[in-house]
Amino acid sequence: MERKAHYALIGLFTFAVVAGAFGFIFWLHHSSGKKQAVMYRVIFDSSVSGLQVGGNVLFNGIRVGEVTNLRLDPDKPSQVIALLAVNKATPIRSDTRVGLEFAGLTGVASVSLKGVSPTTPLIEREEGEPPTLKADPSASQDMMQAAREVLNKAEEVIAANQEALHQAINDIATFSASLARNSDKVDSIMSNANETMSNAKEATASARTLIDNLDKRTDDITMTATATRQIEIAGKAITDLAHNPQRILFGGSSTPSATPAPTPARTTPASTPARRQPQQ
């Protein structure tokens, strides 16, 4: 019995020590956070569905505080006043945008703060009263409310175009029935289309082969023309050689040399008459 009593006392003592340690850590963290936090008042003009006390306060997506109180404005029942405990190092300025952010599809909301200009002065604090921030008019619109509005607009559009939609549905039904009645023809058309595609592929391959053959023929014709020109040149050379065989010995141009002009014949001078002898 004494041993069981000792075990019970040891267990209770251990539990008390652990609980005291957790309590001290919580108190230390809570008190230090309160000392480093400053209070702000945020006014929402409509519902803040999903926002709860203890909810996160985010500045550009970073957690900087929490919601400490939510209450209605007795003078303006459409407004909701939220008190925020925000880290005093957070640069909240007069143009800081305030809204709500929702975590996925859970509907849990957080207060969202977004900075705009770094040159705008910080909000001035008055003794005893926290600074007041005004939320955007659409900031408190949750996802479900937005979805309901979209559905309402869709319903209005459908109601306004009910006859046109009914006619379109009838046309689709008629077209489907026509396809069902002519299913055999549709299959035939599809098979013909497949055959046409295969024929087109064969024609393309034949065209490529023809182009290749034309290229080869063109090369052959070019070579034949070159050989013909060479034969013509050789024929002219043989013809010139036949007309002027002296080219082999003396060279010269291939044109026949001009025949030398005949030398004029020498004229014999006329004989002079004999002198007469004087008479004696």
How would you sum up this structure, described in words?
Helices cover 49% and strands 16% of the residues. With 280 residues, the chain is of the alpha/beta class. Among the domains are: 33-143, no CATH class; 145-179. It has a seven-stranded mixed sheet. The N and C termini lie far apart (222 Å).
Outline of this structure?
The chain has helices at residues 2-36, 143-160, 162-181, 183-243, 247-250; strands at residues 37-44, 56-59, 62-72, 80-87, 97-102, 109-114, 132-134. The protein is α/β, with parallel strands linked by helices and 280 residues long. Among the domains are: 33-143, no CATH class; 145-179.
- Beta strand count: 7
Helix content: 40-55%
**What is the residue-averaged pLDDT?**
75
Number of helices: 5
Structural class call reads: alpha/beta
- Strand content is 15-25%
Q: How many angstroms does the end-to-end distance come to? A: 222 Å
For the largest sheet, list the strands in their spatial order. Answer: 5-6-2-3-4-1-7
Run of helices and strands:
HEEEEEEEHHHH
**Contiguous runs where pLDDT drops below 50 for at least 5 residues:** 253-280
Alpha carbon gyration radius: 58 Å
Sheet bearing the most strands, described? 7 strands, mixed
